[in-house]
Amino acid sequence: MKDNRTIIIEPVLTEKAVRIREDKNQYVFRVDSSANKIELKKAIAKRFNVTVESLRVVNVKGKMRQRMVRGGRVTGFTSKYKKAYVTLAEGDHLDFLDNV
Length: 100
Description:
Blueprint: H1 4-7, E1 8-11, H2 15-24, E2 26-31, H3 37-48, E3 52-60, E4 64-69, E5 72-77, E6 81-88, H4 95-98
Antiparallel strand pairs: 1-2, 2-6, 3-6, 4-5
């Protein structure tokens, strides 16, 4: 099993993530692409000392990007990654994200 610090990469702090956190008590994290739901649930519960009620995982595809160089146009892709939407039990919250 992987280490809890390597499974959870960073919290996602977008307008949508903040709105979901305030309305539904859900938190969004960018997580390791090779982690599964069972590992994610255990890692979040152990690292933050909370009860995870539900967990949804989304694989985000890389977007195509183009840029102009001297020889013409170069096409590439951004990196793909995995996001986890975590719903906590009633009364649980993560203190370090509530002040953002």
